[in-house]
Amino acid sequence: MLLTNVIYFVACNNGVNSEAKSMDTTRSTNDSGYTKPGITEKAFGNYDGQEVKEFTITNASGSQVSILNYGGTVTKLLVPDRNGTMGDVVLGFDSFEGYLQKNDPYFGSLVGRYANRIANAKFTLDGKTYTLAGNNNGNSLHGGNKGFDKVIWTAEKLGDNSLKLTYQSKDGEEGYPGNLTAQVVYTLDSDNSFKLDYTATTDKATPVNLTSHCYFNLSAGRDSTILNHQLQIDADRYTPVDEKLIPTGKIANVRGTPMDFTSPKLIGRDISSVKGGFDHNWVLNKQGNALEKVVSLYDSTSGRLMEVFTTEPGMQFYSGNFLDGSLQYTKNGQKYIKHGALCLEAQHFPDSPNEPSFPNVILKPGETYRHTTVYKFSTK
Ligand code: GAL
User: Fold this and answer.
1) Biggest CA-to-CA distance, the chain
2) Ligand 1 atom closest to Cα of 245?
3) Per mean pLDDT, which range of 10-14, 94-98, 302-306, 307-311 is the poorest?
4) pTM for this one?
5) Looking at CB atoms within 10 Å, which of 196, 218, 292, 344 has the fewest?
6) Cβ(344) – ligand 1 distance below 6 Å
7) CB burial string 50-76: b at 16+ within 10 A, e below
8) pLDDT tier at 6 (50, 70, 90 boundaries)?
9) For a substitution probing ligand 1, which of 322, 324, 327 has the most ligand atoms within 8 Å of its CB?
10) 339 catalytic residue (yes or no)
11) Which residue's alpha carbon is at the smallest distance from atom 10 of ligand 1?
């Protein structure tokens, strides 16, 4: 066994898109490339008088994911390209200041209590109308002003490859009813599957929709956009939206439209025919809540393939339309430009609390919300 402080310096094609990664973990690696799995932690900052920690899970093949107790934020996800070179496939910030900057676009966040939009920041439940923060054109987005992405979660290491985060959301917090206990277990398996298992319970009926808001660019800095990534979504239908991105309530067929990703397609091929770019919920073909493969994303420059499995009925594919290169803090000096990365947010449909025809999002006392999503990385 050789004990190494691993530092990767991979060719940079220009100053902006550097794939140089410096990793601060100490690893045990042997000649066959086996790395001792484990979890390390380090101080990352302070928030609301509490310490922000970054936990890094390393698996047996040397892949790594780093997660903050602040917002359950995924700050790094290092997986190999077709030559075995590790690269960071998610956008994020080098330091905690980045996560506090105005207009942080939810990089790597855990989103809740209700991911995506609720129209007019209002919903009615059991005859009572609840008012939320209208933080997005008068609609509520991603849980409100201080959603689950902006709170400190309690972290617990489970074995050598899982991290459990727990958050107690109070009755009335951000306008939502009921004390909600939310838990998310992050696992990095030896086959490079990054899994999120979500559960939640409540003491009053409440809408719940939890998701992960990682921004992926599988080239790990080689390509400044995701327009040349090839995407396949196993969905024949999607939920059309109005100009404020609220579903109209209709469910439309993707056939013959730019929304058709039933066969692998370059994201850049039809994007200019969709006003603003892709930012829609696809109605997955899967039936019921079994864990099934629903998405494949492939980057030919690196050979990285990401397959997404979920128990959820919907997938928000967001093509990074609001990124504009203006963020003051980034990672490794990169510029995060329009379409610089994409999100694949497994979830229930947007505005479901106001759309009785959409699958139920109301959690009642005595029930348990359960959601599993897996992002599995390989190469070809
Ligand atoms: C996405 C959403 C986008 C945008 C983004 C955050 O989940 O679909 O419309 O709000 O989050 O910038």
Assistant:
1) 65
2) 9
3) 10-14
4) 0.92
5) 292
6) no
7) eebbbbbbbbbbbbbbbbbbbbbbbbb
8) very low
9) 322
10) no
11) 141
